[in-house]
Design goal:
about 425 residues, alpha/beta, 6-stranded mixed sheet, 5-stranded mixed sheet, 14 helices, globular, binds beta-D-glucopyranose
């Protein structure tokens, strides 16, 4: 039996990324961005969004749809210019019923999109033609603003009949089947882009948008997209970055996942996965040491039973309330708290390293201020997460870190979808 302190020291070595390793990540990420943009093999897809910065004078009523995580949300938004807006109506529903009644994340496309259309139907203004912006938070090959083909599912979604198809057409059909032909899907857009659009609606310094939630991804304003004439938001699909300093727990998680080898960065950073990492490390510690707790609850043996929420509970000052954690003796909880900290800090540091690579691409000497617009439960709620990002930015950029402002932009999908729909309307998409 290996001593617990020895194991904790080796876990520290496995999860801690020192400046050299983070610098390596910055450089590798920069190289793969350049490769992805010029069509060379790369784990970064660098997908064009066909959207550019708002001029901040956008006005009008738009439908917004947010499809991409745990919930699906339909909204009617009034844009009022200069960052101002009003939510006129909204409806939210989980994609998978927590009580087990339904699960559209694994349903056939027709059922899934009919469910989406049913939500829109509840708030669509009667008899009025309205453009809709569709935040679809999965990797799509876009050939135009309203022409987006799903490349592959992430976040362990498995709904059938969507991969390889145009999600705009699927939505349009579902709307038509419900007699909602006055709702015109005018733009399909990634959630990173809607987050950035939302920030850029009020500040011209916003150049990067990122999601640190269930999934992880970043977009930015590319000054020279190959073949483009104007600056364009590019969806990096950074969660798929493959040159990551992974450890054996990451490899174990990856090999048991739906798509081994893909989404390597997301599997180290995203909320969908960090609880699973904690579970795998916890199981290992339990097997190789005498935890005071004699028997782990059976659920610890079920993949994905430990969630990011459980991990967050461990990091809060109050005692945890999750049954998975209360079943453990206090000293064992303490050990797991250290592991939770290692996982959290590593996720934040990796994310910060990728942002530095992006800033360096668009402003190599960091002469301008940059706002990074961030949404997602990890950034907003996970104790220590945003602070760890700031630490990494400062340690890698020194004084220049003051040019970067990280800003929480909550629920950008509503306003951002409306702004995307507005650009679609101007391009004559409806
Ligand atoms: C998806 C991205 C998305 C991110 C955040 C990832 O799993 O591939 O498209 O932006 O999650 O929602």
């Amino acid at each position: 039996m290996i001593s617990l302190s020895l194991s904790l020291a080796s876990l520290q070595a496995l999860f801690h990324l020192d400046t050299d390793r983070l610098t390596y990540v910055v450089e590798a990420f920069s190289g793969q961005m350049a490769d992805g943009l010029t069509g060379r093999p790369s784990s970064l897809a660098m997908l064009p969004s066909y959207l550019t910065c708002p001029d901040r004078r956008e006005h009008g009523d738009y439908m917004a749809l947010d499809f991409g995580g745990t919930n699906i949300r339909a909204m009617l938004i009034r844009l009022l210019g200069q960052g101002r807006f009003a939510v006129l109506a909204h409806r939210t529903a989980p994609l998978a019923d927590p009580a087990g009644g339904y699960d559209y994340t694994a349903a056939p496309a027709k059922e899934l999109f009919d469910f989406v259309a049913s939500l829109i139907a509840e708030i669509a203004p009667p008899q009025k033609t309205v453009a809709l912006g569709h935040t679809f938070s999965f990797p799509c090959r876009q050939n135009g603003l309203n022409d987006a083909v799903l490349l592959y599912w992430t976040k362990e979604f498995t709904a059938t009949g969507v991969v390889g198809n145009n999600v705009n057409t699927l939505l349009q059909q579902a709307l038509a089947d419900r007699g909602l032909s006055t709702i015109i899907p005018a733009a399909v857009v990634n959630d990173t882009v809607t987050t950035l659009l939302t920030a850029a609606y009020s500040t011209p310094d916003a150049t990067i948008g990122s999601i640190c939630g269930t999934g992880h991804n970043t977009c930015y304003l590319e000054p020279q997209f190959p073949g483009g004439t104007r600056p364009m938001y590019v969806n990096i699909e950074s969660g798929n970055f493959a040159a990551v300093p992974a450890n054996p727990y990451d490899d174990l998680l990856d090999s048991a996942s739906d798509r081994p080898g893909s989404g390597r960065l997301e599997k180290m950073c995203g909320g969908r996965y960090i609880g699973e990492l904690l579970r795998l490390v916890g199981l290992d510690l339990f097997r190789h040491h005498r935890f005071i707790t004699e028997n782990l609850p059976t659920r610890w043996h079920e993949p994905y039973s430990v969630t990011a929420k459980d991990l967050a509970e461990l990091l809060q000052p109050a005692s945890p309330s999750s049954p998975l954690l209360t079943a453990l003796a206090a000293p064992d909880q303490h050990v797991l708290r250290m592991v939770a900290e290692l996982i959290t800090v590593r996720s934040a540091h990796l994310v910060a390293a990728t942002w530095i690579a992006i800033v360096r691409r668009i402003d190599p000497d960091l002469v301008r201020p940059h706002v990074i617009a961030i949404d997602g439960s990890l950034y907003e709620k996970l104790p220590g997460y945003s602070a760890a990002i700031d630490v990494a930015l400062s340690s890698l950029l020194g004084e220049k870190a003051s040019q970067i402002t990280c800003r929480l932009v909550k629920d950008g999908s509503g306003v951002g979808s409306a702004l995307a729909a507005c650009q679609g309307e101007k391009k004559g998409m409806c």
